[in-house]
Amino acid sequence: MKVYLYLLLIFSNDYQEMNIDYDFLDRSITELFQGLEYIECNNENFTECYFPASNYSTISGTPTNYNFLGFPVQKIGAYVNTENELKKLTLSVKVPNGRLFYDKVVKKYGMPETSSLSQFYLEKYGYKTPMEIEKDSWNESYENINKPKMEDLSIIKSSNWYGINEGSGRTSIGMVIKNKTNPQNLFSEKEIWITFIREKY
Predict the structure, then answer these.
(1) Quick one: pLDDT at residue 124?
(2) Alpha-carbon gap, residue 59 to 20, rounded angstroms
(3) Whole-angstrom Cα distance, residue 177 to residue 193?
(4) What is the pLDDT of residue 140?
(5) Distance CA 74, CA 71 (A)
(6) What is the gyration radius of the CA atoms in the chain, in angstroms?
(7) What span, in angstroms and rounded, lies between the C-alpha atoms of 180 and 157?
(8) What pTM did the predictor assign?
(9) Domain-by-domain residue ranges, the chain?
(10) Dist CA 74 CA 49 (whole Å)
(11) Please, what is the average pLDDT of the chain?
């Protein structure tokens, strides 16, 4: 009985600690969602599909067996094309500390190439928001804006990495990370979406 429990704990830990990364784009849907409850999104159940532009999704409230850089993955969405190839994979994680999360991301992937700034970021550094600027003057107003620093990544809308599988000789893969929690809410867990996407279809 003790041996059985010991083995059960070992396999349970392995099951919970499976790290997910861009190489999971090479898996089939059944391999990706193995052991998980998931649905194929359609017009009848689209409200249950958590991520836009995903045609497969885990069921909300059902734990997954994955983590991303040590942070448990709460939900998974996937987009599969007509050739049954996995083209996009989106993960949702909740983190108690956004800076800790981005420290790990930058350590593995480097700083993002491009970013989508938030009103919170613009106000923090004294820039005018789009509502305060004539639309025709946006390019002129923002062409010299400071590039976000490490400590800013958790307060901007999204960050983009390109060619994170560079050197593999395979189709280029990009990564988009979006902050889904209002940066002013300092006392709640931060929800973050990580999307891996094949850059050439």
Answers:
(1) 81
(2) 18
(3) 6
(4) 64
(5) 9
(6) 19
(7) 8
(8) 0.84
(9) 1-95, 97-201
(10) 13
(11) 83
